[in-house]
């Protein structure tokens, strides 16, 4: 029996946590030389009140057209958006390891913001369960999420397919990422990350992979090549990560989470294989080659996908989604849980 102490704090939640998303493409970056010309590739458009059930964060591309962050942002940094579904050979090893990451939850925050996989154009919204907005608990000494947390676009953990290494099916979401760099990003930012390793969380019997990655523009990024560099340069971070995932559902009355491989973090090569297979599952999803369940596949850039829609249709979808939502906002209650060792 573990002792559970609760310390109630007054929540002083003020201000919006959301800033315009900006992904900057440095021309020639990753490939080596070239001028560092920055160009914003994506931006976000906020609708509704943050921390309310009607809040939605929609994504737009550089042409100011609505897109789905789940389906229309390319997985790989160097693939062209227009034909993201066709695989392209990367130019070198470094490029092979560069991925777009959609930041859903900024580090140190608690609101469970996530890509709404079941809604058309998949805006980010706050997770709602039993008609209540969801926040992760503070498990002492952690405050909220301990990394910038998000997902890789164009990936899907298929709930109908058993993973060979974990013997469990997928959790029906894009693959999750923990970004360990020094900067705190905003919800909806699209950043470029280097993959370093992966943890196989088993969450209520489902495989829920957690990638470990670092922002490629982090001042220390050049020191990080694989999972062992995290142990070397950020001692304690992987242990804290394991502990965090083990305990994060305990405050909701759920059991501790389990891990495949005895909680061992797998290396970059292993992680890249997992990404590849979740990308294949996503392709099958978008091309109608599998059971989609409740996932909404509406996209504007995947030519050949039966769920492709025009820009006008996308715009009217955004408008109809918004008019159908109207709920009031909830305040977050700040609680700390002391779960010990
Ligand atoms: C997604 O949402 C649109 C608009 O509500 C709907 O027409 C479509 O059938 C949904 N399903 C899929 C699989 O895209």
TrEMBL record:
GO terms for biological process: phosphate-containing compound metabolic process. Pfam families: Pyrophosphatase. Keywords: Acetylation, Hydrolase, Magnesium, Metal-binding, Signal. Residues 1-17 form the signal peptide. The keyword Acetylation applies. Its cofactor is Mg(2+). Its EC number is 3.6.1.1. The keyword Signal applies. It comes from the Eukaryota. It is an enzyme of class 3 (hydrolase). One of its GO terms (molecular function) is inorganic diphosphate phosphatase activity. InterPro entries: Pyrophosphatase, Pyrophosphatase_sf. It catalyses: diphosphate + H2O = 2 phosphate + H(+). GO terms for cellular component: cytoplasm. Belongs to the PPase family. Homodimer. PANTHER family: INORGANIC PYROPHOSPHATASE. This is Inorganic pyrophosphatase.
């Amino acid at each position: 029996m573990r002792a559970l102490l609760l310390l109630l704090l007054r929540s002083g939640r003020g201000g919006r946590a959301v800033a315009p998303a900006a992904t900057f493409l440095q021309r020639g970056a990753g490939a080596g030389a070239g001028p560092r010309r920055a160009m914003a590739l994506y931006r976000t458009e906020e609708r509704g009140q943050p921390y309310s059930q009607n809040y939605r964060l929609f994504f737009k591309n550089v042409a100011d057209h609505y897109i789905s962050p789940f389906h229309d942002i390319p997985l790989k940094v160097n693939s062209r958006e227009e034909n993201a579904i066709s695989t392209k050979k990367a130019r070198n090893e470094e490029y092979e390891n560069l991925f777009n990451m959609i930041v859903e939850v900024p580090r140190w925050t608690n609101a469970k913001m996530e890509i709404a996989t079941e809604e058309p154009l998949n805006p980010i919204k706050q997770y709602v369960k039993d008609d209540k907005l969801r926040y992760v608990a503070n498990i002492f000494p952690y405050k909220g999420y301990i990394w910038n947390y998000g997902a890789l676009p164009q990936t899907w953990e298929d709930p109908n397919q058993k993973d060979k290494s974990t013997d469990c099916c997928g959790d029906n979401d894009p693959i999750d990422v923990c970004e360990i760099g020094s900067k705190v990003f905003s919800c909806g930012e699209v950043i470029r990350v280097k993959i370093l390793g992966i943890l196989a969380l088993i969450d209520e019997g489902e495989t829920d992979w957690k990638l470990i990655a670092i922002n490629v523009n982090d001042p220390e990024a050049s020191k990080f090549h694989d999972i062992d560099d995290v142990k070397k340069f950020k001692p304690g971070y992987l242990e804290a990560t394991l502990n965090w995932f083990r305990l994060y559902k305990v405050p909701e009355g759920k059991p501790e989470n389990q891990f495949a491989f005895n909680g061992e973090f797998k290396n970059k090569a292993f992680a890249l294989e997992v990404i590849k297979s979740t990308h294949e599952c996503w392709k099958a999803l978008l091309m109608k080659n599998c059971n989609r369940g409740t996932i909404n596949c509406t996209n504007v850039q995947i030519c050949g996908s039966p769920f492709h829609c025009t820009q006008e249709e996308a715009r009217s979808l955004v408008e109809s989604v918004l008019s159908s939502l109207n709920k009031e906002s909830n305040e977050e209650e700040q609680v700390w849980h002391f779960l010990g060792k």
